[in-house]
């Protein structure tokens, strides 16, 4: 039976994640993988989570197992509101921050609209933008003649994929740009609290609260196996997200929300986060030193102050898409940088994650990668 | 700031759930509520769930807390595949069966398309259909001249809202209709296993596997606080759902999935379900006897063999939408039947849920409702 005739007009635009495709085919445990955007498993406080599960069921009983409010359970909204200094009415819980990106795009953009985003940018965001048949354009290139733009998407802290952080003047310029064009801002902020060097800078939301949807995530500060994120934003925008979310999945996972509320509210999150941040700092330092040790001349990389990724720029001659099969066959995985460019350019770049790989695989992994790159020069 | 100029063309079509609006305003604990589609809290095996949480963390460790595959974790897909006699490749886990409806609509329908569904039907489905700007039409009224139809949506077992079950000839006729029109079928089946009288009938999927997406749910057989459902269907359809789901939320809640896999796989689900089914049977019998005792002449109702709802049809003179504020003020809640009709007709009907209300509130609730109805005759 040919099913293609049944598909909606969106389907041909769906973008398959090459990252998720890798996971489908390869047992990451068997190789040196710098590919996934995964937190370190040592950052998951298993014993604490087991204790929490008992506490949640004791404290909330069947309420933790029943349907919950579409906006999220009050206990979690309150803990987030307190932590970030906003009224509860400006907090919507989402079933992952990926859902935050998706539902924001859904309520704002129509097919043919332009989403403003400086490449390279998060692949999951590009997937949502593409799935709604929008076009992605760099804010610097945009003029209204190119089409209608409703929002600007940005990851200001420790960008996925580059690990770069916008400076304060860059943040101010971005806000000014958004105000000048009269577009909203979707500030994707899953890594903000995972900072291990430098000084925190004001969030975009704090600079332009009236036009920003700020997306937070529990995946990097608690555990991604609980699919939870949040949106902080103007109530008039959250109201439409709330109504849309009814049709998406009725409500976020309720048990997961009570787990997160207890974890964040009790201070356990902060204690665990400072341990995780210390570990990630060490991992980054180790990674940078391995890159310096092994990489051939002409290879450059970012030095992130937080987050999960760094970004390698190789000499123009090296094509990381083309090189990928060899790398995988020889036992090392990365994500080709061109996947983070809407136009598929920058084929001489790659994203490396250094938080997930087993410590003992970092050195052989970098050495192997360097060897493969060198052989192509 | 006026945000309306930023909204996508879908937004004006969003349908707000009157059911969820009731929950926003009223503390259901303080009244006699027949409104929500909630399972009985006594159906949640709290102690067993606490034990399971420990077991899941012991058995799967950090794997239960990490990102998971977009299709769902293999352990849960396998348990479902075994239970329903299908290959694992035909099972996609969803973040709630509401997501199953939403993503099916997303990959199949375009604005202006027609969804075939016999009213009255599930409000959450109508919300998804509306949010994608489709029109809903009864299969009996449809001719291709009316527009393009891609699928037929049906809840064959214990329909929400009516509690009605399609007979075998009705199922066969529906499949024949779908084949004749060459449309797919979305079989929404959250209540199928919650049968407390009569004999199970073949699922629509078993009659037309090649054109059916069968949606299952853990909400009525485990706990809705874990947001989990599944889709069984042809691989070519699931493949597009898989790609779409990457952009929706990356993967279903992982910890929740392992909980469900252990609950279903260990036999605990079946033991708990048979207790729940016995309780629901008693509740239905009690409800039917209370209706017979209290309702004035001219009021009719369905006698469901399973599920969570029954359906009241009142004399034409009574308007349940208009009557609603009085009922709520006097302490009884229901859902007006017209909300389940795309055209808002049948204002003399209502849906009553009898699984959630506290046992001791059933009799006073029905008596009060009967009194209010009688006063309007």
Helix content of chain A: 40-55%
Architecture of the largest domain in chain A in CATH?
3-Layer(aba) Sandwich
Strand order of the largest sheet of chain A: 2-8-7-6-5-3-4
What is the element string of chain A, with H for helices and E for strands? HEHHEHEHEEHEHEEHHHEEHEEEH
User: Tally the helices of chain A: what do you get?
Assistant: 12
- CATH overall fold name of the largest domain in chain A: Aspartate Aminotransferase, domain 2
Write up what this structure looks like.
2 copies of one chain form a homodimer. The first copy, chain A, has a 7-stranded mixed β-sheet, with helices on both faces. In chain A, strands 9-10-13-12 form a 4-stranded antiparallel β-sheet. Chain A has a two-stranded parallel ribbon with strand order 1-11. With 377 residues, chain A is of the alpha/beta class. In chain A, helix 2 packs across helix 9, helix 4 packs parallel to helix 5 and helix 10 runs parallel beside helix 12. The relative contact order of chain A is 0.17. In chain A, strand 5, helix 6 and strand 6 form a beta-alpha-beta unit. Chain A folds into 2 domains: 147 residues, Aspartate Aminotransferase, domain 1, CATH 3.90.1150.10; 206 residues, 3-Layer(aba) Sandwich (Aspartate Aminotransferase, domain 2), CATH 3.40.640. Chain A has 12 helices and 13 strands. The first copy, chain A, starts with 17 loop residues before the first helix and ends with a helix.
């Amino acid at each position: 039976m040919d099913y293609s005739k049944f598909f909606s007009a969106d389907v041909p635009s769906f973008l398959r994640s090459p990252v998720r495709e890798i996971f489908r085919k390869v047992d990451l445990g068997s190789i040196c993988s710098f590919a996934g955007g995964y937190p370190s498993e040592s950052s998951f406080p298993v014993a604490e989570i087991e204790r929490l599960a008992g506490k949640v069921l004791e404290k909330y009983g069947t309420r933790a197992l029943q349907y919950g409010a579409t906006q999220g359970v009050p206990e979690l909204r309150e803990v987030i509101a307190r932590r970030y200094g906003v009224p509860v009415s400006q907090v919507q819980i989402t079933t992952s921050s990926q859902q935050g990106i998706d539902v924001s795009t859904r309520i704002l953009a129509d097919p043919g609209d332009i989403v403003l985003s400086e490449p390279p940018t998060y692949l999951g965001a590009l997937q949502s933008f593409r799935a709604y048949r929008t076009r992605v354009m760099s804010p610097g290139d945009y003029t209204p003649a190119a089409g209608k733009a409703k929002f600007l998407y940005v990851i200001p802290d420790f960008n996925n994929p580059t690990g770069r952080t916008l400076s304060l003047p860059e943040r101010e310029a971005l806000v000014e740009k958004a105000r000048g064009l009269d577009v909203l801002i979707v500030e994707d902020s899953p890594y903000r609290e995972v900072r291990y060097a430098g000084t925190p800078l004001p969030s975009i939301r704090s600079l332009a609260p009236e036009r920003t949807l700020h997306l937070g995530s529990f995946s990097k500060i608690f555990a991604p196996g609980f699919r939870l994120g949040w949106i902080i934003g103007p109530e008039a925008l959250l109201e439409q997200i709330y109504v849309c979310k009814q049709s998406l999945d009725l409500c976020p996972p309720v048990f997961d929300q009570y787990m997160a509320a207890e974890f964040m509210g009790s201070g356990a999150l902060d204690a665990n986060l400072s341990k995780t941040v210390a570990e990630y700092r060490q991992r980054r330092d180790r990674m940078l030193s391995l890159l310096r040790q092994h990489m051939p001349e002409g290879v450059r990389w970012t030095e992130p102050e937080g987050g999960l990724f760094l970004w390698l720029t190789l000499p123009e001659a090296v094509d990381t898409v083309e090189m990928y099969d060899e790398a995988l066959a020889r036992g090392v995985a990365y994500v080709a940088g061109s996947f983070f460019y809407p136009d598929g350019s920058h084929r001489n770049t790659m994203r490396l994650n250094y938080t997930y790989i087993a410590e003992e695989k970092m050195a052989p992994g970098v050495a192997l990668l360097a060897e493969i790159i060198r052989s192509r020069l």
